[in-house]
Amino acid sequence: MRKVYLDHSATTPVRSEVAQVVTEYYTNIFGNPSSVHSFGREARKGIENAREQVANLINGKPEEIIFTSGGTEADNMAIIGSALANKNKGKHIITTAIEHHAVLDSCKYLEKEGFKVTYLPVDSEGMIDLETLKANITEETILITIMHVNNEVGTILPIKEVGAIAKERGILFHVDAVQSYGKLPIDVNEMNIDMLSASGHKIYGVKGVGCLYLRRGVKLHPIMFGGAQERKRRPGTENVPGIVGFGLASELAGQEMEMENQRLTVLRDKLITGILENIPCTQLNGHRTQRLPGNVNISFEFIEGESLLLMLDLKGIAASSGSACTSGSLDPSHVLMAMGLCHEIAHGSLRLTLGRDNTEEDIDYVLEVLPEIVERLRAMSPLYNNRDKHRNHREECSICTLRK
Ligand SMILES: *Cc1c(COP(=O)(O)O)cnc(C)c1O
């Protein structure tokens, strides 16, 4: 059976160049980078080279890169660390309702510690409104944390414009760039970003490594203790193979970005058009143009995204419904709910995220098997069989654009 992986926003395979260098650092260049002997010095050299590769991709300086265990740790460090370091200036934070849980739960923790958090709403395409952002800034606001690309619907948020507002008002700006790092151009200076989170396993590196970009001069209250690594900002023996692999993955992503985005956009649009035109009662979720090249998110009326996933899996196709972190729970995705979708449509969502290993044949295969699967599931659905009755929800639901 054909196997088609379309879940690159959940994780990516390690690319061969990275696997090779990681193996080298597990077996031959295995020293502790804090050791003074040649084994240690060689490992140190690998880390410092990776720091340059990562800094280059976002136009930062190597000394502004702190390696972490991934995007989640970087988000926690940036948000909790900067809030605690600045609590004397104010205790208000602004974020969005569609952030990853690493950001939302860090904000929830701070709320328990007495901070006030504003969760900016988004429109039906997952976009924030800059005037609403400005209107919510107060004298107490110390941090704005907004993602660059949403992991579920692929909407690209106006980070540069937010950065300009944050700079003008003298507020720290953190960006969860885990879904855009290595995929879209990022310039921390041009975008006025003070802190930025990135992760290795979303860009063909290994799992369990990522980084926080921390602009020179920005203070963080430490949340971990026990060593002088990463200039005392992130203690613990470094994940040397992972870091070296992350560095290489970053450099290669930068080199291939433009070509790969052109290729993915064509495949993505073929998949979107193919589904919307051939399967009735479907709608695209997320933004039509401000969209990550590899992201497809579509709702299928009258069926559950979860059943769709299982049927696709039987055909060798790996996808996701909503976010990987929320599957396993029956709650609809907080992102789709924030976009104003009704429960039924949110539950019927399917996310297909493309990557460098996908070909046009993969897309053709999905377009071949998906209509049959949807038809089979709908045939079993009492909702579908009584669809006129059950479509009343649309009168209340302002954004369902489903075709009759
Ligand atoms: C995957 C992801 C994270 C978490 O990164 P990990 O390296 O898996 O901890 C954070 N934010 C977004 C937007 C993500 O997609």
What does this structure look like?
Helices cover 42% and strands 13% of the residues. The chain is α/β, with parallel strands linked by helices and 404 residues long. The longest helix has 39 residues, at 240-278. The chain folds into two domains: 4-9 and 257-394, Aspartate Aminotransferase, domain 1; 16-253, Aspartate Aminotransferase, domain 2 (3-Layer(aba) Sandwich), CATH 3.40.640.10. α1 (16-27) packs antiparallel against α7 (240-278) and α8 (305-314) crosses α11. The chain binds pyridoxal-5'-phosphate. Pyridoxal-5'-phosphate binds next to α3.
Please provide the count of β strands: 12
Bound molecules: pyridoxal-5'-phosphate
- Quaternary state reads single chain
The CATH superfamily of the largest domain turns out to be Type I PLP-dependent aspartate aminotransferase-like (Major domain)
Strand content: 5-15%
The backbone outline, from C-alpha atoms, is globular
- Rounded mean pLDDT is 94
What's the CATH topology name of the largest domain? Aspartate Aminotransferase, domain 2
Gap from first CA to last CA: 35 Å
Largest sheet: 7 strands, mixed
The arrangement of helices and strands along the chain is EHHEHEHEHEHEEEHEEHEHHEHHHH
CATH class of the largest domain: Alpha Beta
